[in-house]
Each structure stands twice: as structure tokens, then as C-alpha cells.
Amino acid sequence: MSARNLILADLDGDRTWRLQDYLARGGYAALKKIIAESTPPADIIAEVKASVLRGRGGAGFPTGLKWSFMPRSFPGAKYLACNSDEGEPGTFKDRDILRYNPHSVIEGMIIAAYAMGCERGYNYIHGEIFEIYDRFEEALAEARAAGLLGDKILGSDFSFDLFAHHGYGAYICGEETALLESIEGKKGQPRFKPPFPASYGLYGKPTTINNTETFASVPFILRDGGETFLNYGKPNNGGTKLFSISGHVNRPGNYEIELGTPFSELLEMAGGMRGGRKLKGVIPGGSSSPVVPADIMMDCTMDYDSISKAGSMLGSGAVIVMDETTCMVRALERLSYFYFEESCGQCTPCREGTGWLYRVVHRIEHGLGRPDDLDLLNSVTTNIMGRTICALGDAASMPVQSFVKHFGDEFAYHIEHKTCLVPDDVQREGSKIYVGPSC
Amino acid sequence: MLSQESLKLIDVEVAKYPSDQKQSAVMAALRIAQQEKGWLARETIDAVASYLDMPAIAAFEVASFYNMYDLEPVGEHKITVCTNLPCALSGGVHAADYLKQKLGIEFNETTPDGKFTLKEGECMGACGDAPVLLHNNHKMCSWMTTEKIDQLLADLAK
């Protein structure tokens, strides 16, 4: 097994999230060293580049490179934002990082602010996890009281303050420019890029946005070295990563493993398939990543390159496991409804197209499918993709394309026979209330 | 319009942002107003807007965009159940059906005594805890078996 806890190291559930516990785990050592040695900011960015840490929010963009885009000498305010607006179906890792190890995110953000010259930061937390937002506020108060945040951090000339901002129910705010609009107190509608946030971000000032897990990885990298972090993963896929496993496994939950660990091992760690049933398909990187059939998935390793080769994306590391009791048409119908519901409405292809996708999949599922519906679905997706401001339209299209591609026979069966290939009672039994041993 | 307590809480939020960016506090301010009033009537939204020196329509845009704000009255206890795919694979839909049956209402309905409103939610970022539901937006209830749903409803009915 390749379980390896760097981000969730030495945690003991709810009991050890406070500052004193984090300090006892070696927390804030990296920051203290940087302050004591007045480490040049460029050295920090070089260390993060050496770690080959890639953005953990979904896009997998190299973090060190992103940091180097910030115009350090820009006169005036520069901002830092943490994206904890975790609402992609299947993803629930940032909640656990903030719940059990909030100071790792705070320390990571302070180091990032030091490296990029930011004076102020915001952590945008998903509204539905409001109890976690309250806890993060408490953690911030602890850090401020200890002189780790605010004016002249640890007696140095470096000042940075950090605040929590909550969402209130909009998936689109996980898109980085929508998130900035939301912090500005507006509807969360994405902005055109360019200009990119590094030149025109929050309040029109240079801004860098990283995911929660990305920031939480930074203290380890600065303390133990970028190369050490890289070596926990594999080339071009540095470090460990949290995977959120949901669906038909015996122990749904978060598992931190080295990148490059075989999927079969991860599945075993999650207790294997529920009821010993057969694996049918896996959505490996959150609901917007293309579904991968069981036989292909079993040959994959869990890293950006392997999953990409399998025709999907590692995304946020949200692994949705579906067994043989799953009707793939019904599964897709639910996801399509989600994107239809969450489209911000700004771009016509997405606003109208997600409605088309949902309605067509819905009618196939309900026995009203027409012979040319699969062609229609493909045509709608190609008319959405690449024609919108942000990636939500693509995110809505990729599940449709991949479900139809890999499970086309199930869709055809629905259209021809007006019923599911998987009998209703089998589906019902497979999706009944399941509470695993981990709770 | 809003209580002194709510205004004080809003002031704490305003202080998080640069002094010329009071509007940034609108999401928290609307949440605080909703906690006080139970839901967001137009005059409540207008009061928030005026307190933050922003146009009323801009505050309304925010209130209507984010789905945890209630623009119509809801019951004393709003229960939002996630039925998205990962939850549905572990009983999210069954839990919702059970709630509907127990309360005798459908989604977006309120019990005649005004106690409970049932809503269908989108991903709450807690798929490993399925079935998951939110009580009055802020309290997350995990692994909701029928027994735990019975217990929750009994506790709330008191």
C-alpha cells in the first residue's frame, strides 16, 4: 500500500486541529525558518517549482510557475485567494483538510504571500460547510494572536492578513474569476480571460488563486524540500494527493496516497467493492471528468498522466465508483441536471445547451428517447465546447460524450425498449442507504 | 430594520475588506439578515443594500443568484437533502423519499404547521458522508439512516 500522509500527517480526527497541535507536529517551522533567514522570495518559488506540485483544484497547473506570473514589483495592493469552494460532485477533500488541519492552509498561504508580495488574502469557503467556515475563523484568530498573521509577522517587516469569505450555494464560484467576482460582492459570473488574475484579479489588482490542498502542501515542501516532495510521487506528478472516494465502495472517504499508486490499490484501501459486486465504471476526477469503464480503469495508476492517457482527467481527485447495479443513463441524467441547474446563464451555448442535454437525457431515461437522440446529444456538446467564457460548458459536455461513448449500448437499449437495461429493483437495491464502517 | 446585533455582526464582516469595498460583505450580510428574519423579503434585502451603500438591485442580484438564500418564507426547519450522483449511489434518493413520506410533503413544500420545509440540494462537498442533509443551511448531518432521520425529526419537532 502506498498510503502516505504529508498533508494529513499525525492527525487525530477533530481533536488536533488547533494551533498548539499543529505546532507540535512541526507546523509553522517552515514559515519561521523563512522569516529568520529572510529567504529571498525567488528561492521559495524555485523550491515550489522543484517539487512539481500541480494545482490540486482540478486543472493540475504547475503551482511554482503560477506564482512566478505575479508581478512582484507591482506597486500597490496584491492579493492571494484560496479556493475552498469545493462543490464538484464527488469532491470532499478540502473539507477534511480545513476541518482537521486548517493551520496547514494558513501557513501555506502566508508563505505564498511572502513569496509573491501579497498584503492580504481571502479563503473562499463553500457555504454548505458552514461549520468548517466557523472553525477556520477560529484558526485565523489563533494565528493572529500568535503573531503569525497581521502586521510585522513574527517581528519581521513582512505583513499579511488573511480572512474567511463564505459562498452560499453556487457551484460556479469554484471557477477562479467567478470566485473573485463573488468576493467583490457580486453574482458569481466568470470573467473573460485574458486578462488573467495575475495582472487583473481581485478589485482589479494582481491576484493568485490556489486550491486548499495546494496551499496545504506548501509547508511540507519548504520544510523538507521540493525534491523530497517530488520523490513521493513520480516524475511530472510530484508528491502525495488526497483522493475522495465515493459511491459503491465499502469505505467511502479520503485517502492520501503517492501519485502513481495503482487504482486497484486505492480501491482496496477503500474496502473494495460494496457487497463484492462488479465494478462497472469510474469517474476518476470529479463529475466533469469523462467516465472510464472498469477494465481500462483497473490498469490505471492515480496520477495526472496515466488518467489523461485513459481519456479522462485526474481533476480534483474525486473518484466516483459505480458498480453493475448502476443505470448509466440515470447516472448521467442526474449529472446533467446538476450542470443545467448550476450554469450561471451568462453564455448562451452553456445556458441553453445544458438545458438541452438534461432534457434529452431525461427523455431517454423516461422511455421517450428518439432514434437520433445520441447524435443530437453529441451535436449539442460540440456546440457548447470551446464556445463559452469558462469551463462549465465543457464540464457539462464531457460526461455526456464519455457516457454515450463507453455505454452507448445502454442508451440504445433505453431508446429501443423504453426501459433500463439494469432492472429497477436491482438499481434500487444497489443505491439504498449505505453507511460504511468508517463512520 | 435589522437588529443592532445583526448590524454588529455585519460590521465585523465589513472590516474584512478594504475600506472602499464594503459591497464585498454583502453575501455575509444577507446571510446574517436571513438568520435574523428567517428569509429574505425585498425590504430586508433593501435594508442590507442601504447599510452597505450599494444599489438595492445589486444586493437582490446576489440574493437571487446564490441558492442558500430564501426569497420566500420557509418553515422553521429547512432540510436540504443532496441527491446528486455520488450521494444517490449511497442512498441520497432513498433518504429524500423517506423524508417526503415522513413529512407528507414534496420538495419545495412546507408542512401545514410551518415546521418543516424540504429542499433538494446540489453537491455539498461531503459525498463520503452520504446520505447528507443540511439543517437550516448551516448544520450538516452525515450518514443519515432512516433511524437517524427519525431521531432528527423528533428532536426538531420538540
Q: What does this protein structure show overall?
A:
The complex is a heterodimer of chains A (439) and B (158). Chain A starts with 18 loop residues before the first helix and ends in a 9-residue tail after the last helix. The longest helix of chain A has 18 residues, at 348-365. Helix content of chain A is 44%, strand content 12%. Chain A has 3 domains: 19-232, 3-Layer(aba) Sandwich (Rossmann fold), CATH 3.40.50; 240-323, Ubiquitin-like (UB roll) (Roll); 328-429, Up-down Bundle (de novo design (two linked rop proteins)), CATH 1.20.1440.230. Chain A has helices at 19-24, 29-37, 41-51, 63-68, 93-100, 102-116, 130-145, 176-183, 212-224, 226-232, 263-269, 294-297, 304-309, 328-342, 348-365, 373-384, 392-406, 408-417, 424-430, and strands at residues 79-84, 120-125, 161-166, 207-211, 240-247, 253-258, 261-262, 279-283, 292-293, 301-302, 318-323. By secondary structure, chain B is α+β, with helices and mostly antiparallel strands. Chain B is built from 7 helices and 5 strands, in the order H-H-H-H-E-H-H-E-E-E-E-H. The model of chain B has no long low-confidence stretch (mean pLDDT 97). At the A-B interface, strand 3, strand 5, strand 11 and helix 14 of A face helix 2, helix 4, helix 5 and helix 6 of B.
